[in-house]
Amino acid sequence: MNLRIFEQMQRIWDAFPEARATTLHPPPVLNRPKHRNRLIAMAASVVLLLGVAGWFAWHYSDERVLDTAIGEQRRIALADGSHLDLAPGSRVITHFTLTKRDVRLERGQAFFQVAHEVTRPFIVHANNLTVTAVGTEFDVRVSSDATAVTVMQGRINVSPDAEKMDNGRTRTEIIRADIGQRVTFSKSAQQFSVGSVDPKVAGAWRGGTLQFVGESLEEVVGVINRYSTTHIVVAPALQQTRFTGTVSPPTVRDWFKALEQIYAVEVIDQGTDGILIRSRARNGIRS
User: Fold this and answer.
1) Full-model pTM
2) DSSP secondary-structure letter at 187?
3) Residue 11 has what DSSP assignment?
4) Which of 7, 86, 87, 168 has minimal CB crowding within 10 Å?
5) Which whole-number Å values give the CA distances from 72 to 82, 206, 208, in the listed order?
6) Which of 154, 108, 101 is nearest to 127 (CA)?
7) pLDDT tens-place values along the chain, 287 residues long
8) H or E segment to which residue 52 belongs
């Protein structure tokens, strides 16, 4: 409506006595260009915000390298609310994004208390195994030949890590383990074994006590070596000898005495060369 037409209407309105007390006012004139520009600016801001959020979601990454020295033990809070207990002489690398939670246990042992997230599984790579969990508690221990995973609470999936399989072979075997089960993978035999274990026994190391059930002396000594700077070696003939019992790292020499009573072995202190556990000589001949 232009001004001339409005004035004509005003004169007609004034001709009616009952309407003389009423005055027409011109409607507000909208500044259309400014209003349109404001809408365009708001739309651009929304697009920019969505673009930034999308870029952040695609590129967000939180990576940490966590390790412990010989004899050191740590409890660590992770970015997703999970926690891990890292045993002495251990190392893990965590890599979290908005879509995945990856952890690689490179050496030693760790206990994982996983925050529940159905859409973002918690995946642990350890030697030749991949452990997948959503929200549970489990323990992983790696050695030169074997990887052992023990479930303390909930359920996990354990499968071979295709990238680490020998000769480029891949396997689709998936083992579902529940509370109180231990899954062990032997690198030399390229096979799984599943057994039952008391979760308290498997997690005793977090309280400073090492408990073993039917494990080889090679495995036992490998664990003890992460607690002491005095290196222990087991003679090849004894490495697969099975041991069940408890070891307290601060009093490991008491364990040496117990070994000599239980088995036909002798423990030799070689000074700077460490400790050697070997077969006891019989009639001057060592078996």
Assistant:
1) 0.74
2) T
3) H
4) 168
5) 21, 11, 11
6) 108
7) 443 444 455 555 555 555 445 455 555 555 566 666 676 666 656 555 555 444 444 445 689 999 999 999 999 999 999 999 999 999 999 999 999 999 999 999 999 999 999 999 999 999 889 999 988 999 999 998 889 999 999 999 999 876 555 554 445 689 999 999 999 998 888 889 999 999 999 999 999 999 999 999 999 999 999 999 999 999 999 999 999 999 999 999 999 999 999 999 999 999 999 999 999 875 444 55
8) helix 32-59
